């Protein structure tokens, strides 16, 4: 199996990618390869993912896969968007991020709480790959008023899926890994690769 590096130290993402790529690629993390993170200074999900992929490939010598994803809330003009992981100030503080989003949405009426998880995935053969593969996909839902469910990570407990009748955090991982924004993007990426 070919080894690639996932440009992330987010344990939730690493677990999801390993589950989705099992039998196709051996995925190693940035920690595994002693790769230092690069600042996410892009203005879009694609810019951030491309920066992370090129950095991971350059430092590891491996082909790299990176995603930049987050939640885009219509009533908040697209916020938190690319700042989803650090919305409340500290990177990766899921509980603080959820509470800040719930507070920002407290006066938003039902029917106007639409949102989507958005994912940009980038694959580069090498750090200087002139033709990176770039895939973007969304996953439509609504923001609840309180947390429901224990699975997943990030905003999953407040992201309600009308098509499933539950939150993302109530889905079994094997179901989420076939229908989420990241799953759809990864399926398309694998088809292109």
pLDDT averaged over residues: 94
CATH topology: the name is Maf protein
N to C succession of SSEs: EHEHEHEEEEHH
Beta strands, count: 7
Share of helix, binned: 25-40%
Number of domains: 1
Query: Structural class of the helices, strands and pairings?
Result: alpha/beta
Taking pLDDT < 50 over at least 5 consecutive residues as the criterion, the unreliable ranges are none
Overall shape: it is: globular
Provide the spatial order of strands within the biggest beta sheet.
Answer: 2-1-3-4-5-6-7
Task: State the end-to-end distance.
Answer: 14 Å
Please describe the biggest sheet, giving its number of strands, its sense, and whether it closes into a barrel.
Answer: 7 strands, mixed
Tally of contiguous helical segments: 5
Task: Write down the CATH class.
Answer: Alpha Beta
Percent strand equals: 15-25%
The CATH architecture can be given as Alpha-Beta Complex
Please render the helix and strand layout as text.
Elements: E1 2-6, H1 11-21, E2 25-29, H2 45-60, E3 64-73, H3 94-104, E4 114-124, E5 133-143, E6 159-161, E7 166-167, H4 173-179, H5 181-192
Parallel strand pairs: 1-2, 1-3
Antiparallel strand pairs: 3-4, 4-5, 5-6, 6-7
Description:
It is built from five helices and seven strands. A hairpin with an 8-residue loop joins β4 and β5. 30% of the residues lie in helices and 24% in strands. It is of the alpha/beta class. The two termini are 14 Å apart. A seven-stranded mixed beta sheet has the order 2-1-3-4-5-6-7. The chain is globular and about 50 Å long. It has one domain: Maf protein. The mean pLDDT is 94.
